[in-house]
């Protein structure tokens, strides 16, 4: 079965060569130093190695101001210019007038309507399911699109059985903050689980948020440890991807994490990585975040 895996990393752009404020330089990501043998930066945004590609994707979409999560993620999921539609960048939640579009045009609904198996691979704790039963829950773009399209939310039981991956990858924060007693796993183990899940579906999506928390200065954990976890996760995905049958795309909605000297978003291009069966095609076709949905649809036709 041909499959596509979309890994969304919240708030990651291509920044300056800055060993103090750019974690990709400061923490020596093996993804870049070993796999790509270079680190993406402004004026050197295109890299390729071993059939994998790093390239910039525009999130400004012709609209002034800092790109935001609500309109950015809606653009990714629905394949249209949400900031232009709204008249501004908006976040962190979807803008009210884009919600009908998010419901009718999201990528999950498209694949479901074409009889494709879809999966949102993030696991959610009990508190999330209690929250979505409240009177007016506010959800970010991907869980809202899934809820509006009847896509199953995976649970702590799925995490335990290896059928879902927590948003922080290794399960430790669930144990520390939510008092779960999940086995803490290696990032490489989580990556292999995600690859297995993706191999069982036509389209799979996974989201990682901590990069945006770190960029906004809201993360209370060890920054070097968080970087190492993300690095190991991405390195394993690229190293062990089934390139004959799967296409991987790693994308983001705006810059942030790549410049820790500020706590706002940035105007930098988003860091985007493609690999696998149609990785080269994606790298050549995707120029801005509103093109991601259509190109993923094309690779699974």
What does this entry look like structurally?
By secondary structure, this protein is of the alpha/beta class. The chain has a single domain, classed as 3-Layer(aba) Sandwich (Alkaline Phosphatase, subunit A). Helix content is 40%, strand content 13%. It is built from 15 helices and seven strands. The chain has a seven-stranded mixed β-sheet with strand order 2-3-7-6-1-5-4, sandwiched between helices. Strand 2 (47-49) and strand 3 (52-57) form a beta hairpin. Helix 11 (187-199) runs parallel beside helix 13 (223-240). The relative contact order is 0.24.
Write a concise synopsis of the structure shown.
The protein has 301 residues and is an alpha/beta fold.
What is the percentage of strand-forming residues? 5-15%
Q: Give a quick account of the main beta sheet: strands, pairing sense, barrel closure.
A: 7 strands, mixed
CATH top level class name: Alpha Beta
What fold name stands as the CATH topology? Alkaline Phosphatase, subunit A
Mean pLDDT: 97
Distance between the termini: 12 Å
Total domain count: 1
Main β-sheet, spatial strand arrangement: 2-3-7-6-1-5-4
Low-confidence stretches at least 5 residues in length (pLDDT < 50)? Answer: none
Gyration radius over CA: 18 Å
Please report the number of helical segments: 15
Q: Which architecture does the CATH hierarchy give at level 2?
A: 3-Layer(aba) Sandwich
